[in-house]
Amino acid sequence: MPYYQRVGEVPRKRHVRFPRPGGGLYAEELMGEEGFSSDSSLLYHRYAPTAIVKAEAVPALAGAELTPNLPLSPRHFRTQELGADGDLVSGRRLLAGNGDVRISYAAGDRVSELYRDSMGDECVYVQSGRATFESTYGALEVAEGDYVVIPTGTIHRWVPRGTVTALVVEAAGHIRPPKRYLSQFGQFLEHAPYSERDLRMPSEPLLADGEDVPVLVRTRGGLTRLTYRNHPFDVVGWDGCLYPYVFNIADFEPIVKRTHAPPPVHQTFEGPGFVICSFCPRPLDFHPDAVPIPYNHHNVDSDEFMFYVGGDYTARAGSGIDVGSISLHPAGFTHGPQPGAVEAVIASGATATSELAVMIDTFRPLDLGAGALACEDVDYAWTWAR
Q: Which molecular function terms from Gene Ontology are attached (predicted)?
């Protein structure tokens, strides 16, 4: 993250003795990215974070396979049809993915087991519901519209209050704010659509007791369940620039212009081989002769994966797209407004849009997961020809 945080108790200097009350020392753990040449944090544990008593291989979750998008076609998936199934970790339904990213839909009302993704960062967009996100860094209250960015290797769990639905982005590397929004030293610049004030991070330690505590770990080799001698939530303090944080989509400040602006103005995060964008309520284009909806476009280098989460989608009227829909427009296909949408929006005199959507553009083709194929609208590709 761009700036330093300090939570709980830490010693005055790094890598010095930190005495525990009653004798002994707290155990220091350095969490660092890119071979400790990028962002890092120091965590101070009551017990050794290395003490495990068991390691077991875990079979791959059902539905983890991917199928090429062939024949090449635009797709429409209705996530409303998937229903709730477990928790926000084990209940993930794989929608699409490639070597850079895997995208899943999750809906559940159960507490997840402790989990650590050691393959890359995760970004979880909460579509509906409320939950507590608990981790070794502390707890965060999350709700509708929150992006929860979780650094690689963070042990955490989800504690929902009722049913929570979410879009889960699992990266093969790190998810960060776009470089063009930051100064050379990491501060958000004035032209950025959000700033440090819009981010929420843990503010106090989260301490839990327990012995022989299982943690599900995802690695490049598959799934393993490690059993820790002591509960991993034993951190009395930490400091640094690496930690989970929350950003709400309602705090994204849209960038507008007199004629229609291209998707990069909506970019919110970037990852290896993909970007995440937020389409938020905003004024429509205000040139006297503007066409205030998207033009037909063909992103020749990207697949476009769009999750529609709120508002009114005037440009897609007649396509079947609604709240909870996901459209996939692959590179190699030109897409845009439905027939008649341009004329209709001009005639309406509308000056603002209420649409709310999360878009993921990937720079390698997306293959399809079982979750997507289970809720596909097979007639979607032909809606422009009606």
A: homogentisate 1,2-dioxygenase activity; metal ion binding
CA distance 283 to 379: 32
Q: How far apart are CA 124 and CA 165, in angstroms?
A: 10
Strand bridging mode 146-150 / 282-283: unpaired
As given in the structure block, the two tokens for residue 295 are 């033009």
Q: Which of the residues are catalytic? A: 260
Contacts of 167 (CB under 8 A, 6+ apart): 103, 104, 105, 106, 124, 125, 127, 307, 358
Q: Which 3 state secondary structure label does DSSP give 49?
A: coil
What is the pLDDT averaged over residues 341-347? 86
| pLDDT digits 0-9 by tens, 163-221 | 999 999 999 999 999 999 999 999 999 999 999 999 999 999 999 999 999 999 999 88
224: β partners? 57, 217
Place of tokens 């009227």: 317
**Annotated binding site for homogentisate, which residues?**
313, 335
Angle at 125 between CA 120 and CA 127, to 5 degrees: 155
